[in-house]
Design goal:
Layout: H1 3-7, H2 17-41, E1 56-59, E2 64-66, H3 67-72, E3 76-80, H4 87-98, H5 100-105, E4 109-114, H6 118-128, E5 133-136, H7 141-145, E6 150-151, E7 154-155, E8 159-163, E9 166-171, H8 179-188
Parallel strand pairs: 3-4, 4-5
Antiparallel strand pairs: 1-2, 1-5, 3-8, 6-7, 8-9
Length: 193
Amino acid sequence: MPRSLQSAGFPRLHSSPHHTIMNLKATLTALLSLTFLPLASQAEPLAVGAPAPDISAVDQDGKTVNFKDVYAKGPTLVYFYPKADTGGCTKQGCSLRDSWSDLQAKGVQVLGVSIDPVEAQKKFSDKNKFPFRLIADAEGKVAAAFQVEMRGKVTARQSFLIKDGKVAWTMLKASTETHAKDVLTAFDGLPKK
């Protein structure tokens, strides 16, 4: 057997029938564990109907934001973006900024989240005059609570609309330029009380 297979944990095959069967079982077990390893390490995203994560983090001004308190004020869009002040993330934030009056008319609050530090979020917010809070999730705790996919050291572009303390809508591949339109359309399609 090649050394590379032995070093990966595959057993050495012996000639007796009993040993061969035992070794084949061990080999299959090792192969299956390697095949499904990536699936085990990737958490499923939060599904519609799941309780909204109760977590706290700091915003672009260094102020603590308790998400549960924000949810209590009304429907809340929590959107994740990879990196402050990059092309796609700027388009996404500006889409929400430019539709701010439409979002406010429906009572939708917005929290933008990335793993950028407070200073980067502040600069990004001030530069683009965002009327909503940006969360500095430098340790990735908010992303983990929402089970957002990590791509290297950045979060995937994913969005969650929270209503009545639960996830009411998700967009696991959020758009950039049409993000606000997508959110408004989703909000209008939610069941009314």
